[in-house]
Amino acid sequence: MPDSLMARIMPSSVAVAECWGECGQASAFPEELSAVERAVPKRRAEFARGRACAHNVLARLGYAPAPIGRGRRGDPLWPNGIVGSITHCGSYAAAAAAPDDRFSSLGIDAEIHEPLPSGTLQIISNKEELDMIRQLPRDGTWWGTVLFSAKESIFKAWYPIFRTWLGFGEAQVFIDSENCRFSGKVMSAVGSSGHFILEGRYRVDQGMVATSVAVGRAR
Fold it and tell me: How many helices and strands, by DSSP H and E, does the chain display?
């Protein structure tokens, strides 16, 4: 099995489970699979892998196996006391979870490391982000895909806290290529400054882009 992809960009106190290929799909509950019963087989398989990873992380945190439902925005409904996130892309799936007394929310995303479809970068980016991408190292990294994945992780971490949906234009991302980190400024009427900053990490490996955001509890 390939080396861990997501676990290397999450805090050590977060439980992470990853799956490549067909591992663990049988552990998805019928109640979970009913949410995608009308989907094509590929989509159902991806969904099942993600739920299998979620059951794995909950077991590591001491929770008995139980169905993980879906919210109205497709967000996973974790047990009380837990925050987490799920991602699946192609043959890869991952889940991350932690107690909510340590983290306010988590967001993870994985994408195949390849160029975005034609025109997509212009849709998801503003002028500053396009200028940034042009200045990032030309080292074989598809920075548009890193940007897309970073925004997905930011959105997943944002929603459980504020319960509002974000468009791609509502988060401006800065990529720190030297340290494999990123930050996202979400334009919203939260706080006196009018914006909210989320910090994350990324990794490009094994043909994939993985991104993560972990929002810690204020102590």
Answer: 5, 10
**139, 142, 147, 152: CA torsion to nearest 10:** -130
Is it true that 7-108 and 111-216 share their CATH fold? yes
Give me the helix-helix angle, 127-135 and 143-162, nearest 10°: 140
Locate all alpha helices (DSSP H) within 61-142, ordered by sequence: 120-124, 127-135
Helix (H) or strand (E) holding 195: strand 195-205
- Beta sheet of 82-89, edge-to-edge order: 15-20, 92-99, 82-89
Buried b (16+ CB within 10 A) or exposed e, 156-173: bbbbbeeeeebebebbbb
The domain over range 111-216 is classified in CATH as 3.90.1200.10:
no
pTM of the model: 0.92
The residue ranges of every structural domain in the chain are 7-108, 111-216
> In CATH, which superfamily holds the domain spanning 7-108?
4'-phosphopantetheinyl transferase domain (3.90.470.20)
**pLDDT-above-90 percentage for the chain:** 68
Q: Which tens digits make up the pLDDT trace of 95-112?
A: 999 999 999 999 999 999
Tokens linked to 32: 């979970």
